[in-house]
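Entry for zinc ion complex. Fields follow.
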Amino acid sequence: MTDENYEEIDLAKDIEKVNRFARRELSPEEIYCFPLVLCDNEPDRDNERFSVSALEELAKLFVGKTGIFDHDPKGKNQTARIYEAQVLTDPEKTTSDGEVYTYLFAKAYMMKSEKNSDLIKEIDGGIKKEVSVSCSVKKKICSVCGRDIFKKSCAHKKGEVYNGKSCVHILDEPSDAYEWSFVAVPAQKNAGIKKNCTSDSDRLCEEVSRLLYLADTVLPLSVIKKLVYNADKERLCEIKTELEKKLSKRPVVQLCSELALKSASKKNNNSQFRL
Ligand SMILES: [Zn+2]
């Protein structure tokens, strides 16, 4: 897809898409919609980048996912949700890796309220935004030798140049997208996209540790993690399913906002999405 596919936000039209995610029928007057770039194929400060096919996959995974504004630690209810995402290209721009610049463009909505009126003004004012996304990928490929370094590491180092080509790690085959956060920062050169990508098995270990911890086990988190990281991955999947079943039966009220957001987006239900 190209930039010509870029669709301006038309509230009268987009309200239908928004309402697919809302708990009750919302009117265009009640919501504020804004565009954002979630991620792209430009190598980041860590010399990692997404493959174009990964961006296509993430476009599907991020729809419906909740994001938080973390510029204000007191702004508890400042959350937004992505209602549409698509991959776009800028044919006039080339990445440092020599590819056509390709990015994941999304539209998000939030409820209008007195509390977030300043935030809406900031976004409207075109203040540069830094977006950070969190997802897991199945593969991390070395751009020099093509090896999936999740399976076996190679001799190439990120950021070093081999035969005139800089080594980057290409994040490929995303399996899940978690949350995203949005920081309105004053215009600055390096404002951009940060990503937090982990391997599937790391993510599984983290998730099982978290669930075990929430299940009121008497073990401290450090011990849980040691056990989980050494456990058989197939068994961990089973444990995860069991724990999720068990935990879904009780009200989740006392979690910190980040955990609440995580579990809300994971379970893909609206119950904890307080807009
Ligand atoms: Zn390599």
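NOTE: Strands lie at 31-40, 48-50, 66-69, 79-94, 100-111, 129-142, 161-162, 165-166, 169-184, 193-199.
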